[in-house]
């Protein structure tokens, strides 16, 4: 029965255009129970429904070499558990190449045969492209693709209700070495942090600075 259910989900996700790019749930997926995807040029739209608690794991393949894609994910949370953060990370095939030496040690939640994606392997969230990395539910974001040994984006400071709450997340994807990086995985972990200090993006830091300046000014006038 589990095998039939997994095949049904995979077939559901394979509904889309005849474009060469393919998106489907990976066998390690636990959270995503339904959805669809389609492609228009270099725009990839993914619709996801989550009815189970766990990692949502998508397998993506056949991105063209060096082409920058814009991804829009429409997510519905029916898990019954509210999300207060949302971590996403790219995982590429473990091929024992020199690039794998730059990855952080593989963590326990990473599926067999895959590893973290370091900056030098050519796979990224299209760093430097200028494509906005946004969320309609979370106001802050921290990411790293340059020196941390893995490519990730963590969204936080917000809430997606477990009773049908929604979030729209957008970002870019690009691969300069498709021969060694594909198929790759997009790991999505609700209520998890990738690790390291959670440093808000510059806009949030500016607002925090203004707030602290206001407090200091108020204390000055009280003296």
Compact description:
17% of the residues lie in helices and 39% in strands. It has 223 residues and is of the alpha+beta class.
Oligomeric state of the chains in view:
single chain
- Which blocks of ≥5 consecutive residues have pLDDT under 50? 4-19, 196-208
Q: What count of helical segments does DSSP give?
A: 3
In whole angstroms, the N-to-C terminal distance is 72 Å
Structural class: alpha+beta
Average pLDDT rating:
82
Q: What can be said about the biggest beta sheet?
A: 7 strands, antiparallel
Number of strands: 13
Number of domains: 1
Fraction of residues in helices? 10-25%
The whole-angstrom Rg is 19 Å
Order of helices and strands: HEEEEEEEEEEEEHEH
Strand content: 35-45%
From the spread of the alpha carbons, the general shape counts as: globular
Give an overview in words.
With 223 residues, this protein is an alpha+beta fold. 17% of the residues lie in helices and 39% in strands. Strands 1, 4, 6, 7, 10, 11 and 13 form a seven-stranded antiparallel beta sheet that branches. Strands 2, 3, 5, 8, 9 and 12 form a six-stranded mixed beta sheet that branches. A hairpin with a 2-residue loop joins strand 2 (32-40) and strand 3. The longest helix is centred in the last third of the chain and has 21 residues, at 202-222. The protein is globular, with a radius of gyration of 19 Å. The N and C termini lie far apart (72 Å).
